[in-house]
Predict the 3D structure of the following.
Amino acid sequence: MPSVPRASTSSGGDPGRLDELPTPALVVDKGALDRNLATMAGVWPGRRLRPHVKAHKTSGLARRQAELGHTGFTCATIREVEVMAAAGLGEDLLLANEVLDMRRLGAVVEAGARVTVAVDSDAVLQAAVAGGVREVLIDVNVGLPRCGCDPQDAGRLADAARAAGLEVRGVMGYEGHLMLVADPVERAEKTAGAMALLQKAHADVGGDILSGGGTGTWRTNAVVTELQAGSYALMDTAYAAQDDVPFEQSLTVLATVISVNASQGYAVADAGLKAFGMDHGNPTLPGHAVWYCSDEHTIFSPKDGAPLPALGDRVRFVPAHIDPTCALHERMWMVEGDDVVDCWPVDMRGW
Ligand code: PLP
Ligand code: MN
């Protein structure tokens, strides 16, 4: 096993094999990813989708999304905006988050990228002016207790933004509290209620854009002009359990079995909670029970009397929550079967 990962195969290098990767390693099934991207593009084509890059933090994957026509992106951090712009993907970047010091964003605008920021208070819109950002969306609270102004304050904020010389492109409102409502009919009704708040605010604000939604409401949000879905490409376990969310879990964490306890019937792999986002629970391993994760280990056993793995075997855990999982890794390997076909740095991680 090489101690250093092979260089990116984008440049035409030796593709390599899955069993040669150092572990733990983030591995993406290219076929499943391609199917996810195509399914989403079929329903939310081109600029109707503004993919959220926080899900994968990988400009190589964002480039694939752009090649499908999704050339506007959603970002959560200044660093995501900076890396996307530097990667030549800065045609229309929305920072869907509040920032109080926008000087780094002003520099990105100065360098030629288009940057729009969410604002939910006078202080944030003044930060946009001071930092050299010229375009904003009024961020409206549609029921998730997080950022966003009260819907009835949106018109006043838009007036204040225009008076300060900013271009107001419209509104955004993220219905994150509804993504995992199990019944699609109930989810659709509740989404419509949340989006009625956004529409009401939009009537006071004006502009062309109503931005919002995510993977969980990709079929139930009929209001937004652009959907901010991100997880659909790699997919969480909770989303995969929803009947109307057809995307496949294309992301796994490759690990090596480093110890086997035959008398007690368990095996130990070399990927632990530092390799998985754990807030949605343990990773899963098809055909196995995952007992627990510690810092650098995951303990698991076969189900239904199947044999224990052997020392040195490779296993591919399915992380429950992809965003924090990706953020823990430096690179993402693309595989087709046992062939490694590409390697993308997770270049938007960090702040
Ligand atoms: N928009 C915003 C502002 C978000 O914070 C998120 C995720 O948390 C999303 C959109 C969509 O994400 P997902 O596709 O993972 O549901
Ligand atoms: Mn998430």
